[in-house]
Amino acid sequence: MATAKFRIWRGDARSGKFQDYTVEISAGMVVLDAVHEIQATQAQDLGVRWNCKAGKCGSCSAEINGHPRLMCMTRLSQLPLEQPVTIEPMRAFPLVKDLVTDVSWNFRVKEKIRPFRPRPADAADGTWRMDQSDVDRVQEFRKCIECFLCQDVCHVLREHHLHEQFIGPRILVHSAALEMHPLDTENRLGDLKRTQGIGYCNITKCCTKVCPEEIKITDNAIIPLKERVVDEFYDPLTRLFRVFR
Ligand code: SF4
Ligand code: SF4
Ligand code: FES
After folding, report:
1. Count of CA atoms in the C-beta half-sphere (13 A) of 174
2. What percent of the chain has a predicted confidence (pLDDT) above 70?
3. Is the pLDDT of residue 216 over 80?
4. Same domain for 68 and 109?
5. Last residue of a domain, which of 37, 66, 94?
6. Would the pLDDT of 138 be above 90?
């Protein structure tokens, strides 16, 4: 039977190192299968987070051969197996143990986004009417599985560690889903500019490239939000209108 070598990061926030494991492989295996095999037969204390094994819970995010990916959606047949497959925890978040990181920062930041504030109902039965095209626009953002791979790859968080100043692409997608909702009346533009750091994004699109749900994070969420911020704070006509208003 064929075998492959896996080089897995073992350790915690204080120290750690890569450790090699050899696993028998078969057709159709994904990286998470190999990690489970290692856990079952060679390293029962190997820390790994997963739930669905179907690319839907967003739990099994890691860095495979240096690329942020879901372990359960990465087939061994997609990887060069003549050399060891490296598996590391995400780097943008504090390490708990082995492949498990503490992603709770993302949920704390998300709580700070102003919630949905719908306009009053406009139909006699107490409901709303919306154009389907407006609904379709935000539907894309609702596909997010909160894997935080986009946060992990974003250089503002990963290399510059500006977690206090920048909310990151995932939370910008969440903000866009609310801001572009056809019924929403809240204004989040001041927060995006002043405390949520939208200006730090330089539209490199790295976040879009790693999104397993293929959300066009930069083109459809971040750039339209940036345009709204510019219109609100820097467009001379808008500023003049605000003075007279
Ligand atoms: S496009 Fe912006 S949010 Fe996305 S990875 Fe680049 S800097 Fe970060
Ligand atoms: S936007 Fe995509 S990459 Fe980012 S958390 Fe959601 S699903 Fe993951
Ligand atoms: S285990 Fe759920 S996304 Fe991988």
Report:
1. 21
2. 97
3. yes
4. no
5. 94
6. yes
pLDDT of residue 235: 78
Distance of CA 102 to the CA centre of its chain: 14
Band the pLDDT of 238: cuts 50, 70, 90: confident
Whether the predicted pLDDT of 222 surpasses 70: yes
Q: How many domains does the chain have?
A: 2
Q: Among 31, 35, 36, 60, which residue has the most ligand 3 atoms within 8 Å of its CB, making it the best to mutate?
A: 60
Same domain, 162 and 228: yes
Domain that holds residue 225: 104-244
Do 109 and 217 have their domain in common?
A: yes
Whether residues 53 and 111 share a domain: the answer is no
Are residue 130 and residue 22 in the same domain, yes or no? no
Model pLDDT, residue 77: 96
**Token pair 């896996």: residue:** 6
Please report the pLDDT score of residue 245 as a whole number: 61
pTM of this structure? 0.94
Element (H, E) at 11: strand 3-11
Strand intervals (E) in 14-114 = 16-24, 61-64, 67-70, 85-88, 95-97, 100-101
Residue 99 in any domain: the answer is no
Residues lining ligand 3, CB < 6 A? 50-53, 55-60, 70, 72
Report the Cα–Cα distance between both ends of the chain, in Å, rounded: 75
Verify whether ligand 2 is closer than 6 Å to residue 174 (CB atom): no
For atom 7 of ligand 1, the residue with the nearest CA is 201
Neighbours of 66 (CB within 10 A): 8
